[in-house]
Design brief:
- The chain has 13 helices and no strands.
- By secondary structure, it is mainly alpha-helical.
- It folds into two domains: about 20-55 and about 230-269, no CATH class; about 65-225, MetI-like fold.
- It is globular and about 70 Å long.
- About 25% of the residues are buried.
Length: about 270
């Protein structure tokens, strides 16, 4: 038991170390960053946060990231949930083949899809449009979302659905009144994973939207702080911390639900 506590606290400290380094670096200038990398700041430069906000135009970038992430998240869940329900309640070979087809999505690297995606955006006259990214990103998240939700829905007793249908409920009523509430922990887990993927997406955001400050996401805006002649590491660290705030806020808001999903999954397995 004691060894387990020691390992747990050691692992927690190991995770906190880079966060401490990032936080202290965000309050220093370059000279202090290199002279005393792990010490507390001698002079607390809170202006680094204001400079990072202005130099990288983080306001519009955060708004664009929120818009794209929320839109892609909503479309992904709207498509993945009915698809997972159909697969979970179908026991034939066709369902097994369809599920394996979704699994093939894991084998396609992002770089392989980059050129066709750009050509598709140009063909649809949606190049450098956020709407294209909102429609495209769900395609990258659907394989994992469908497979995870399918496995979770298979743990829901089929007798509940049969009883509801004997009482006159239709498919959509069963889906909305039974599967949505009982699958909430699984849906939240998938939503958190998708949120992290959409928020941190860089490659397609850079190529499709470009460096335009009015269109770019926060992940594309951050590298603009890296100057060819001089990098202000304190300002760069401050910008990184600002971009972490939405991710941390979403995680804290859904933390209890995610823990419930993990516990439920462990009990049911």
């Amino acid at each position: 038991m004691l060894a387990g506590h020691v390992l747990a606290w050691s692992y927690a400290l190991l995770l906190l170390l880079p966060l401490y380094y990032l936080l202290t670096t965000s309050l220093k200038d370059n000279a202090e960053v290199f002279a005393h990398p792990f010490s507390l700041p001698g002079q607390w430069l809170f202006d680094n946060f204001a400079d990072a906000w202005d130099l990288a135009s983080l306001g519009p970038a955060l708004g664009n990231s929120v818009l794209i992430t929320a839109g892609a998240e909503a479309i992904t869940l709207a498509l993945a949930f009915p698809a997972a329900y159909g697969l979970a309640r179908s026991g034939g070979r066709t369902a097994a083949v369809v599920e394996r087809i979704f699994g093939i999505g894991f084998l396609i690297p992002a770089f392989a899809a980059l050129v066709p995606t750009v050509l598709l955006a140009i063909e649809l006259e949606m190049f450098q449009m956020q709407a294209f990214l909102i429609l495209f990103l769900p395609a990258t998240a659907l394989p994992l979302s469908v497979i995870l939700l399918t496995q979770f829905m298979r743990t829901i007793p089929a007798e509940l659905e049969e009883s509801a249908m004997m009482d006159g409920a239709g498919r959509w009523t069963v889906l909305w009144r039974i599967y949505v509430p009982m699958s909430a922990p699984g849906v939240i887990t998938v939503a958190i994973l998708n949120f992290l993927g959409f928020w941190n997406e860089y490659l397609f955001s850079l190529v499709i939207l470009g460096p335009d400050p009015e269109l770019r996401t926060v992940q594309v805006a951050l590298p603009s702080l890296v100057s060819a002649t001089m990098v202000q590491y304190g300002i760069l660290a401050a910008a990184c911390l600002i971009t972490l705030v939405p991710v941390y806020s979403v995680y804290v808001a859904l933390q209890r639900r995610m823990e419930s999903a993990l516990v439920d999954g462990a009990v049911k397995s």
